[in-house]
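sry for the spam today, last one i promise. C-alpha cells for design, 102 residues
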C-alpha cells in the first residue's frame, strides 16, 4: 500500500508501513485516510522530529562490501524527511495536511 500526503504546499507518496510509523510518531492514531489541521501541525511536527532524532540508525554495511550502496538500509530520518518538510511548509503557510491510500 502507498500513502499519499497532500497539502496546498505540496504532496508526495510513501510506503504504508513507513507512513503509519511516522503518523504514530506524530501522535496521530495512524488512521488512513485522515488529516491534521494547520493549528495542530507545530506540536505534531515537534513530536515527529524528536522521535526521529531519538530513533537508532540502521547498521552500516561492511566497508569492504562491493555492493555497499545496494545493501545500505535507508534510515528512518531519511524516510521522514519529505513528511517533515511538508509539515514545515504547511505550518508556515497555515495549511492542513491530509493523507489517503494512493
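last one done:
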Amino acid at each position: 500500500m502507498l500513502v499519499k500526503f497532500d497539502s496546498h504546499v505540496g504532496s508526495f507518496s510513501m510506503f504504508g508501513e513507513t507512513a503509519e510509523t511516522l503518523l504514530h510518531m506524530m501522535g496521530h492514531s495512524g488512521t488512513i485516510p485522515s488529516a491534521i489541521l494547520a493549528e495542530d501541525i507545530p506540536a505534531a511536527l515537534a513530536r515527529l522530529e524528536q522521535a526521529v532524532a531519538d530513533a537508532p540508525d540502521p547498521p552500516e554495511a561492511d566497508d569492504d562490501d562491493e555492493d555497499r550502496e545496494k545493501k545500505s538500509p535507508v534510515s528512518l530520518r531519511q524516510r521522514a524527511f519529505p513528511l517533515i518538510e511538508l509539515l514545515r511548509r504547511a505550518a508556515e503557510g497555515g495549511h492542513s495536511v491530509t493523507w489517503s491510500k494512493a
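Residues 20 and 67 are 30 Å apart (CA to CA). ok im logging off now
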